Amino acid sequence: MTSPNVEPQPTDLDTPGSGRLAHAPADHPPVARPKVGVLLANLGTPDATDYWSMRRYLSEFLSDKRVVDYPSWKWQPLLQLIILSRRPFKSGAAYRGIWNTEKDESPLLTITREQTRKVAEGLHALYGDQVVVDFCMRYGNPSTDSVLRGMQAAGCERILFFPLYPQYASPTTATANDQAFRTLMKLKWQPAVRTVPSYFDHPDYIAALASSVREACDTADTPPEVLVASYHGVPKRFLMEGDPYHCQCQKTTRLLREALGWAPDEVQTAFQSKFGPEEWVGPATVEHVAELARQGKKHIAVISPAFASDCVETLEEIEEEIREAYLEAGGETFTYIPCLNDRDDHIAALLAVIRNELSGWCPAR
Known about the structure:
The chain has 365 residues and is α/β, with parallel strands linked by helices. The protein has helices at residues 51-62, 72-96, 107-127, 144-153, 170-186, 203-219, 236-240, 245-260, 285-294, 312-328, 344-357; strands at 35-45, 131-140, 156-163, 192-195, 226-232, 267-272, 299-303, 333-337. The chain has 11 helices and 8 strands.
C-alpha cells in the first residue's frame, strides 16, 4: 500500500496473489497481501426477541460504563436482580413489533448490512481491491472483536474504524472506539487504526437530511407546521463534564433549518429515550410533541438526525410512543421521516467522509 505522494515499491511477495514472501523459507505460512479495511460500527442488536436473548443483549448494553457510569457495586445488583428480571419482556415486545420476520433479524441489522454493501461498492469503484469493507456491532453480533480479527486475517494492516454516529457522544462513539481498542490490546500484531470523527456538520450529511425532509413534505397530505429533530438523550451531567453531544445536536438542527430555509420556530430540537432518575438534556421529545399539540400545532413531522439507521428507538419509540403522545394531546397529523438508512445521498455522504479519512492510505484508481 502506498501513499499518493510516494513512488510504489516492489512487493515483498514472490508473485501477486502467491501469499509467499520472497526470501522466506519454504515452510513459512502464507502471508496475505496488505490491504486497508473500513469497518462500519453500529450500536447493536439482540439475536432474537425471546427473554434470554434480550437479557444477554440488555446486560451487555446496560453494563457498559459509558452508558451507565454508576459504581458497579451499586448498579450491578440492581441491574441483574431487578431490571433484567422484567425489562427483557418489555424490550422483547418492542422488538417483535418491528422485527424483520423475513430475515429473522432486527431492522438495524438489515439496514446496516445494506449500507455496508453500498459503501463497499462505492469504495471498490474508487480503490479497487485495495479496500476491505465490513460492519460490526458494539453490542451483540457480529461483534467488534470477531470482525476486527477477521479483517486482520484477511490482510488488513490498516483499518479505518467508522462509528455510525453523526454527533459524538460518550455512550455511542466513545464506547464503539473503546471496544475496538480492547481488541487491539489483545493482538500480538496490531493493525494501524484510525477512528472517524463526528460528521454532524458535514455538508453532504446536512444536504441528505434536508432532501429527506423536502421529500417527506412533498408527499404529505398536510405539510407539517413544525419539524422536530429528535436526538437520543444523555444525562445533563455529561454535558457539564465536557461531552460535546448536546452542542453538536443543536448545530445539526440549525444547519438543517438553514438548508431548508425555514424559520427558527419551525425546526425544533428535542431528546428521547430517557433512562434512570437523574436529569437529562431536554426537552424530552414525548413531552415536547404533546405540548406542541396543546399549543395548536396540529401537523408536525419528526426526524432523527442522530441515528444513521432506523432502529427500535425510531421505529418503535417515535412511531408508536411519541406519535401516541402527540395525537392524544390533540395533534392531527404526525409524520415520521425515516433515518437516512441506505439512501443514495446518505451513502454518498458516508463515502465523502471515508475518502477524506483514507487520505495518505489509499490512492484512488
